[in-house]
Specification:
Layout (H helix, E strand, L loop, with lengths): L1 H14 L12 E8 L2 E8 L1 H6 L15 H8 L3 H15 L3 E5 L2 E2 L4 E7 L11 E8 L6 E6 L6 E5 L7 E4 L8 E2 L8 H16 L4 H13 L3 H23 L7 H21 L7 H23 L6 H31 L5 H26 L3
Parallel strand pairs: 1-8
Antiparallel strand pairs: 1-2, 2-6, 3-4, 3-7, 5-6, 7-10, 8-9
Length: 375
C-alpha cells in the first residue's frame, strides 16, 4: 500500500503537462474594426505554431508537441521565408476562421498582410502579425468571430468605436454577438468572471512548475496549520508582485525569473528531505519565492494583456483563478495522500521524502535547462 501511494503521486506528476517557460502556448491577440464595409482583423500570433501544424489546444508547451522539431526549425527561418511559408499555409487556415454577421456565416476571408519579426533569440517566440479582411452586408449590425480550436485561445479587441468589446475566447469558441457600432464593453463583473478561468488554467493544467512548488509545500507536512502558514505567505507574496508587474511598476527579465522559480522548487523539496518540520524561517523563504512566482504570472498577463477599462476586476479575477488552481492541487494531494497516510508513522520516509526527491530532480533539470539552454 505504501509503495502504491508513492507511485500514485509520482505518476500524477508525470502525467501533468510541461512547465511554463518560453515555449508555453500563449493566446493570439486580434484587433478588429469595420473599415468601409470590410471587417479588418489584425492578429498578433505565433505563426510558427500554425505552420508547423501544432494543435494548440492539445498541448500547453510546444516542446511537448510531436511537431516540436519542425516548430524549432521554423523559428530559425528568416522573416521573408517564414512569411512565404505562412502565405502557403493560409488557404488551409482561412476556412477555419469563422465570421458571422447577424447570425449568418460570412465567406470570403482574405489575407491582407503578413509581418514577421526578426529571428533574434530562437529560444523565444517572435512577434508576428497577419491581417485578414472579409466583406460584411451593408445592413450588418453585429458580428461574431472565432476560429478552429487547433489555433488556440484568442483575445478579441474592438477598435474605432465607443465602449468597445474586449474579450478572451477559449480555443474553438465563438464570441457573443458584438455590435459594430460599439457599446459591448464588458462590465466590471464580466471582466472579473472572464479571467477567473484564465488564472485557473494557468495553474491547472499549464503551470507544472507552480504545481510542483505548491506540492513541495504540502509534502513538508500534510497538517493544516503548517500548510496554512506557507500557502498564506506564498499567496500574499505573489498577489503583490502580480499586481505590480501587471501594472508595469516592476519588470524582471524572464531569463532571471524562470530559473529562480525552478530553483525555488528545488529549495522547498530539498528542505522537505533534510527537515522534519516547519522551520521558523520557512514562511519567510516561501514569501520571497512567492514574489518571483508573481512576476511569472504577471509575465503571462503581459503577453496578452487585460481589458483596459476592466483592468482591475480582470486582474483580481485572474489572481482568484490562480488561487483556485492552487487549492485544487492541494485538495487533490490531500485526497490522494494526506487523508489516507498523513498521520502514519511511515508517511515521511515512504511518501514525503521520495516525492520531494522526485520534485527536486525535476527542479534541478529545469534550472539547468533554463540557465544553459534558455528554455
Amino acid at each position: 500500500m505504501k509503495a502504491f501511494a508513492v507511485w500514485a503521486v509520482m505518476v500524477w506528476f508525470l502525467l501533468l503537462p510541461a512547465p511554463v517557460n518560453a515555449h508555453e502556448v500563449m493566446p493570439s491577440i486580434a484587433d478588429f474594426e469595420l473599415r468601409d464595409g470590410m471587417l479588418t482583423v489584425d492578429v498578433r500570433a505565433n505563426l510558427e505554431g500554425f505552420v508547423a501544424g501544432i494543435d494548440l489546444t492539445a498541448t500547453s508547451d510546444t516542446n511537448a508537441a510531436p511537431q516540436s522539431m519542425d516548430y524549432d526549425a521554423l523559428r530559425a527561418l528568416p522573416p521573408e521565408v517564414l512569411e512565404d511559408r505562412f502565405r502557403a499555409f493560409w488557404p488551409g487556415m482561412a476556412p477555419r476562421i469563422h465570421v458571422l454577421a447577424d447570425g449568418k456565416d460570412v465567406t470570403g476571408v482574405e489575407l491582407v498582410a503578413v509581418s514577421v519579426g526578426e529571428v533574434g533569440d530562437v529560444n523565444l517566440s517572435r512577434a508576428s502579425h497577419f491581417t485578414f479582411a472579409v466583406g460584411l452586408p451593408a445592413d450588418a449590425e453585429a458580428i461574431q468571430i472565432g476560429w478552429a480550436s487547433q489555433f488556440g485561445a484568442l483575445v478579441l479587441r474592438q477598435n474605432g468605436v465607443e465602449e468597445p468589446y474586449d474579450g478572451y475566447l477559449e480555443a474553438g469558441a465563438l464570441s457573443d454577438p458584438i455590435r459594430l457600432s460599439g457599446g459591448d464593453k464588458m462590465t466590471a463583473w464580466q471582466s472579473f468572471a472572464a479571467y477567473v478561468p484564465v488564472g485557473f488554467d494557468h495553474i491547472v493544467p499549464k503551470g507544472l512548475d507552480h504545481i510542483l512548488f505548491v506540492l513541495g509545500l504540502f509534502f513538508l507536512s500534510p497538517g493544516l496549520r503548517p500548510l496554512l502558514w506557507q500557502v498564506s505567505a506564498f499567496t500574499l507574496a505573489h498577489t503583490v508582485t502580480l499586481a505590480l508587474g501587471a501594472l508595469g511598476y516592476v519588470t524582471v527579465s524572464a531569463s532571471i525569473v524562470e530559473p529562480v522559480i525552478a530553483g525555488s522548487i528545488v529549495f522547498v523539496a530539498v528542505e522537505n528531505i533534510v527537515s522534519k518540520g516547519l522551520n521558523p524561517w520557512r514562511p519567510a523563504i516561501v514569501f520571497a519565492f512567492g514574489l518571483l512566482h508573481g512576476l511569472g504570472f504577471a509575465a503571462v498577463l503581459g503577453e496578452f494583456g487585460l481589458p483596459a477599462d476592466g483592468f482591475i476586476p480582470a486582474l483580481i479575477g485572474f489572481n482568484i483563478g490562480v488561487e483556485l488552481g492552487q487549492l485544487f492541487v492541494i485538495a487533490m494531494a490531500f485526497l490522494l495522500v494526506g487523508a489516507w497516510f498523513g498521520r502514519k508513522d511511515w508517511y515521511r520516509a515512504a511518501i514525503a521524502v521520495p516525492a520531494s526527491a522526485g520534485i527536486a530532480a525535476i527542479g534541478v533539470w529545469w534550472v539547468l535547462e533554463r540557465v544553459f539552454l534558455g528554455t
